[in-house]
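S1.2 Input.
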Amino acid sequence: MMDKKYTGSVADVDRLLHELLIGTSVESFGVSLTTPFIDFRDTNADEIIHLHFDADIVFYPSSRCQLTKEELMLVGMNSIHLKRVVKVNCTDSYDLEIQLEGGTWFKICGDADGYEPWRISKGLGKVFIEPYLGGGGCAIWAEE
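S1.3 Output.
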């Protein structure tokens, strides 16, 4: 159960993301109803870290083929599958940037048209991070 909710700064979010994601690997990906997701797992833990997003995502390296948005998402997701997270960054506008082994990375825009550009959670109620629309801060729920 989440005991504490507060509005976090970019530095707070960056620190939590670093603690949650560095050293984990992309375990799975897909679409839940209409929301894309990426799941990460730490080799020493049983809990999965869930990343759901409604905002645009950019993968690097990008495909040079002319593909639809959905096809680009699938190619990008396949390019990160099973790779280990080596760097995480949350920008001042709450863009989420995740770099993986081998130089592959992706970025989810934090200044999206939707209410929640991205959300990340660990376990059942242990940590939940959710930026507000337009880079106006970030809600953080965490166990005490």
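S1.4 Remarks. The chain is about 15% helix and 40% strand.
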